[in-house]
């Protein structure tokens, strides 16, 4: 009887010989959220999983969550009828806090006064900070790949000031030269939105800056 019990229990050490070793759980990747306009969510043939936002997260080994809509901005509501602040509230605020939130835009706010843009950006940052106090926030200014209008630079300057006052890092795409050959290599036929190659250039730049 003692021999039988030993066989059934796998010996005196109480273990089952030959049992598979449980796999160690992999740590969850960092969560990287993006809030932006058509550059961020995709436009034309470029879908959300192909934009610079998704590619940046891939390069950084992060899980992307992308919010916003084409035509929107800090003030501009676009066709969806909501600003960045409203997109944050309905698409992101109910989720657990991310490791990093990138707010990218301003391109569509050039028709509004810089005073309105300043107000709206300040309010958005205050709301995000109050909701997720431990989350790292980075602001990316308006994106033009082939020359911005004067008002685009004024919007950029206002957003940089807002970020500085809030202690948030500001990254400026307008300081870069994106077109190095034919514009069609980085711009879709509309002359505004990036091709896949354009998104890849944006992602490589942003991932390097965030690293």
UniProtKB/TrEMBL annotation:
Residue stretches making up the SGNH hydrolase-type esterase domain: 34-201
InterPro entries per UniProt: SGNH_hydro, SGNH_hydro_sf
Record's keyword terms, sorted: Hydrolase
An example molecular function term from Gene Ontology annotations: hydrolase activity
Gene3D superfamilies, per database record: SGNH hydrolase (3.40.50.1110)
Short name of one Pfam family: Lipase_GDSL_2
Protein's UniProt name: SGNH/GDSL hydrolase family protein
Organism, as annotated: Nonomuraea cypriaca
UniProt lineage: Bacteria, Bacillati, Actinomycetota, Actinomycetes, Streptosporangiales
